[in-house]
Amino acid sequence: MITPEKLQIFEQEMRAVGEDLREFGLLIDECPDKLPLYSERPSLHLINRMMIPPEFGGEPIVTIGSEKYYGLSCIERAAAIEQLAYGDAGVFLGSPGASMSGIIINELADSQQKERFYSRFLKAPSWTFFALSEPSKGSDATAIQTKALPNLDGSFILNGEKYFIGNGCRADMGLVFAQTNQTPLGIQVFLVDTSVAGFNAVPLDTMGVRAVQLSHLTFANLHIKEEQVLGKHLSRAKRGFWGALQTFHRMRPGVAALALGVAQAAYNYLLTQRRNFNTLEKHQLEQLELRLIMTRSLIRYAAMEIDTDTNKGYLASLGKVQASQLAEEVTQVAIDCLGPGSMYEHPLLNKWYRDARAFEFMEGTTNIQKVNLFQAYITGKMSYA
Ligand SMILES: Cc1cc2nc3c(=O)[nH]c(=O)nc-3n(C[C@H](O)[C@H](O)[C@H](O)COP(=O)(O)OP(=O)(O)OC[C@H]3O[C@@H](n4cnc5c(N)ncnc54)[C@H](O)[C@@H]3O)c2cc1C
Hints:
CATH architecture of the largest domain: Up-down Bundle
Oligomer: single chain
Low-confidence stretches: none
Mean pLDDT: 95
Number of strands: 9
CATH superfamily of the largest domain: Butyryl-CoA Dehydrogenase, subunit A, domain 3
Number of helices: 11
CATH class of the largest domain: Mainly Alpha
Radius of gyration: 21 Å
Bound molecules: flavin-adenine dinucleotide
Distance between the termini: 26 Å
């Protein structure tokens, strides 16, 4: 476990990387397809090698004394992502690297699959995607319609489509969730190479976190070999959708940290742009500042708890609800305080305002997080005491 002192040093190093992302964030917001042109920048190189375990050739993203940090624990990711999002959430999300898929790979893949996945980043910056959502199935993920029909030789034929998939059109490989049969354990996860026949991806035009180039993916008779079934060495109950569900808890503190980073950036920016506030505004700012501190504590507490027990995933749901709401509120307050022309006069604020509204949907909406919380409550995992 990282100590508070080391966490502070870790954060400072990540803040510097975030500052570099800020330098070209607005440019990429305007032209998302230009992001790969920046892939040689040290900041993108660092993100590209985040979350690669040392046994697969990973290098630390931060070294403090004899301690090496790879971004493999929830607490490291929550702290790093907040600082990177403080710089630019869109560019961070649009960067090369293992990203959300890395968390699932780390938990469910066998050693050959890990080798195949991680080795790409070691050669050159490489993008990945994580494809669960479909045009008509988002929150209701167990009802996805993409199908992977098994052949007698153990291979599969993939048909279907995925929607809102981050980095889908620039990725070299990614994870695709598909139904192999109509049973509850039928959803399997496949490690798919985007260069194969039958794969197509087109970017979608979006308002927030534009750098991530949300994409529409289609699979037409795409052939998948048996070794591409993620975690085929595990029992059916431990791999597939149900196995991945456990890993979602590990992603959530990071998504909450993204929203917190944007909220903090907008708050700090407001204070640099306006010095004098009336009593009502001062009161509002004090409350926001307290909520920023509280939300950070909650996210970090959730991350540390999940690092030792994934059953505590409901804590991250709580953090995500708070952080995404806070990001929306802070950006709104900043815009109100800076006057009617603020959306035109402050391009960064304009961007944060749009970015903040994307977090509500990423990795489960507020309603879905509340369903998680309710389930934790009625099953006794969470209590008021
Ligand atoms: C910036 C961004 C990045 C994304 N990246 C990815 C990605 O990389 N990979 C990927 O697979 N997906 C990704 N998504 C998609 C995201 O996961 C979905 O948008 C999300 O799951 C919601 O699904 P939906 O948009 O279909 O909305 P719906 O599920 O149709 O929900 C619409 C509304 O109904 C409410 N609702 C739905 N079901 C319930 C319920 N049971 N109880 C109460 N209320 C309910 C929701 O809260 C919401 O308000 C991304 C989305 C965004 C915005």
